[in-house]
Each structure stands twice: as structure tokens, then as C-alpha cells.
Amino acid sequence: MSKVAVVYWSGTGNTAAMADAVAKGATNAGAEVTCADTSTFDSSKLSEYSGVALGCPAMGAEQLDDAEFEPFYESIKGSLGGKKVGLFGSYGWGDGEWMRTWQADARDSGLSLVMDGVIAHEAPDDTAVAECESLGAALV
Question: Could you read off the pLDDT of 101-122 as tens digits, one per residue?
């Protein structure tokens, strides 16, 4: 059985709701799933997972949260080679530039993204939830 980690940071709960949908998609596809925010995820166990979904909303000038999420991402990025990786997050303004920048960084770092990052404007609607579930299934 494949193991998938869904790790996120959420300020308003929108990205947390997306994380739940990603986890549901991976579970429905047969994976054993760990869903946790960055402050509680044990990154020392990252080697146990074949798939990793990372979630962070757009912050400031369309960037990753630099207080908690970005330092976490930078600390694990080198351990994600050879794993299936997916990105997701919500935004309240702009056009999703932070996700395009994040995807480019992930690809430039040699990560294997299973699909384009899933974004939701504010709270995820039915379409975004379905995309999150597809992302979860793609990680299995």
C-alpha cells in the first residue's frame, strides 16, 4: 500500500479544507494517508511516503507564507526527489502567480509534479474540491 503525506499551512481554513479533499482523494485511491499541518508533521519520516502533497495559500505579494511554510518547504525540498509531489492552495487576490512561481521552483529543484497545482479563490468550491481529490488520487 502506498503512503501519502498531505502537509499544509492554512491561515483561514481554506487551504485546510483543500488538504482534507486531497487526503480524501488519496484515501479513496487506496493509499494510507497522513494529513497534518506543517507544525505537527514529522518530516523525519518523509522517507516513508511515496507521495507528498504540499499546501500553502498565497500571502502578501503572492508568495508562500514565509514565517512557517516556506522554511518547512525549503527544509524538505531536497528529500522529495523520486517522490510523486502535488501542490495546492487558496488565494484571495491576484491571479495565482504564487502557484506558478512555486511550481517553477519545484520543477527547477528536480521535483516530479503529478499535475499542475490546484488553486481555489477563497473557500474551495465544488470544482476545486474535485480537483483536490484528483490530485490526491494522482499521488497514489
Answer: 999 999 999 999 999 999 999 9
Query: Mapping DSSP to helix (H, G, I), strand (E, B) and coil, where does residue 47 land?
Result: helix
Mean pLDDT of the chain: 96
Nearest to 136 by CA among 9, 10, 15, 31: 31
Please check whether residue 55 is in contact with residue 26, taking contact to mean a CB–CB distance below 8 angstroms: no
Which alpha helices (DSSP H) does the chain contain, by range? 14-28, 69-76, 97-108, 126-138
Asked whether the beta carbons of 6 and 23 are under 8 A apart, the reply is yes
Q: CB-hemisphere CA count at 13 Å for 38? A: 22
pLDDT, one tens digit per residue, over 58-87 is: 998 889 999 999 999 999 999 999 999 999
d(CA 131, CA 64): 21
Q: pTM of the full predicted structure?
A: 0.97
Decide: helix, strand or coil at residue 100: helix
